[in-house]
Specification:
15 strands, Rossmann fold, Immunoglobulin-like, alpha/beta, four-stranded antiparallel sheet, globular
Length: 389
């Protein structure tokens, strides 16, 4: 199954484009599921049918789903209280009733991630269209599974679970409760669930469709979002230019705005496959308006973003790691080697990535940003690199 993630700056028409993409794919006979995390039913308004907590039909070959974050949050909290009953009783904590629980900020996004995992495991659909939050939140959301897994591994390393049999003895000797099995079991379950979401995001069939209104602000937003996606090694399938004005007479007050849009479109077309979506003169509402935007179904899956290691040992005595970072600025780049990991910062985005095995036996020898790619030089460490015989 292919997954198409839709995002862009706030107010750019992301949900409308998600609906238009899903409708176009379904009309081509592709079994499609469209997901949204909005609290209000903006997706339903675009599709012309209400959407809710359960997947429901929106049109032939089209299913829509808007997960209920509140219900999922209540269920998770109830399960946690049941598992942590002994600790809560020791602390004298009062239980929370399901009726008094309201979802915390971010619950919608977490519910979307869980739905994304569940949908990917289903064999009912050929295409999954995901209406993500605005770009800054979407980028943080897409990074969340990998980062949470890293935190879990640091807080509860798997190798420490071998000491489970000693915990009751240590508890009696120390006179304090020791971490119970449920803690490790919960961490293990979370790791499996997060790994499933991470696998969907990193799958070869997953790509991003950007949405932006052509103009200076949209151009800046696209450049920043593309850099954030590059840091996560996520490919861009296409760019939908929303609310594109028609040709206007030379004396129209819209002439300057139309010229501004044309300039942005020309710039985008040098890098992306661009789909202009015409301004209808009103907010699109219902399947007829959404279809009139002429947003196409998912195009061919773009090539996966690769970070190759170039062997230049014979020529220069180094290995070079190529990391494509379109739109990155030299002054906003930072690299920190920490053990077998590299902490990469590009502008507002940061990622901690494991070094390829060959580079773990090397020391960083320099870095340069050229033609939209970061090239990091690694010199073999004589103490770790195998010697020629």
């Amino acid at each position: 199954m292919r997954t198409l993630l839709i995002t862009g700056p706030g107010g750019s028409g992301r949900t409308t484009v998600a609906a238009a993409t899903a409708i176009a794919a379904a009309r081509e006979g592709t079994r499609t599921l469209v997901l949204s995390a909005d609290r209000t039913d903006t997706l339903g308004a675009a599709l012309g049918v209400p959407t809710g907590a359960r997947p429901g039909p929106a049109a032939p070959d089209l299913t829509a789903w808007r997960p209920d974050a509140a219900a999922g949050f209540r269920a998770d909290l109830a399960a946690f209280q049941d598992r942590a009953a002994s600790v809560l009783d020791l602390l004298g904590a009062s239980r929370l009733d399901a009726e008094e629980v309201t979802p915390l900020p971010g619950a919608e996004e977490l519910a979307l991630l869980r739905a994304l995992r569940d949908a990917a495991l289903s064999e009912r659909f050929e295409l999954l269209v995901v209406d993500l939050p605005p770009a800054p939140q979407a980028l943080a959301l897409l990074a969340l599974p990998a980062e949470l897994r890293r935190y879990l591994r640091r807080l509860l390393p798997a190798e420490r679970q071998a000491a489970r049999a000693l915990r009751p003895v240590l508890g009696r000797l120390a006179g304090v409760p020791m971490p119970a099995d449920w803690l490790y079991e919960t961490a293990g379950r979370w790791d499996v669930e997060l790994a499933a979401v991470e696998a969907v995001v990193a799958a070869p069939g997953t790509a991003v469709r950007l949405v932006a209104e052509p103009g200076p602000a949209g151009t800046d937003a696209v450049r920043a979002t593309a850099l954030g996606l590059a840091v996560r090694a996520l490919p861009v399938e296409s760019l939908v230019a929303s609310r594109v004005l028609p040709d206007t007479p030379a004396d129209s007050w819209l002439t300057g705005l139309a010229a501004q849009q044309r300039k942005a479109l020309e710039e985008w077309q040098e890098t992306y496959t661009v789909h202009p979506a015409a301004h209808l003169g009103r907010d699109p509402r219902g399947p007829d308006d959404v279809t009139a935007l002429a947003v196409p179904a998912a195009g061919p899956a773009p090539a996966a973003v690769e970070w190759p290691v170039e062997d230049r040992l014979a020529e220069d005595g180094v290995l070079v790691w190529h990391i494509p970072l379109p739109g990155a600025l030299r002054d906003e780049l930072d690299l920190v080697r920490r053990g077998d990991e590299l902490v990469l910062t590009a502008g507002a985005f940061r990622r901690i990535v494991a070094l390829p095995s060959a580079l773990r036996r090397c020391a960083v020898d320099g870095a340069a940003l050229r033609e939209g790619a970061l090239r990091i030089r690694f010199a073999p460490d004589p103490a770790l690199w195998p010697r020629d015989r």
